[in-house]
Here is the input.
Amino acid sequence: MSADPSGDFDHPSIPDSHPALKRHVLYRLSRQDWQARKRAAR
Here is the structure.
């Protein structure tokens, strides 16, 4: 997995008074990496 800062966002349902919870960080996993992890978990 790798962080994708361009996809980070502020959750619209969390008030600004909770800045530690408001920001959400997006991580991506390529299809190839997902398949490799799935095989390794067997």
Remarks:
- The chain has one domain: 2-40.
- The beta strands are 2-3, 9-10, 23-24, 27-28.
- DSSP finds two helices and four strands in the chain.
- The longest helix spans residues 31-40.
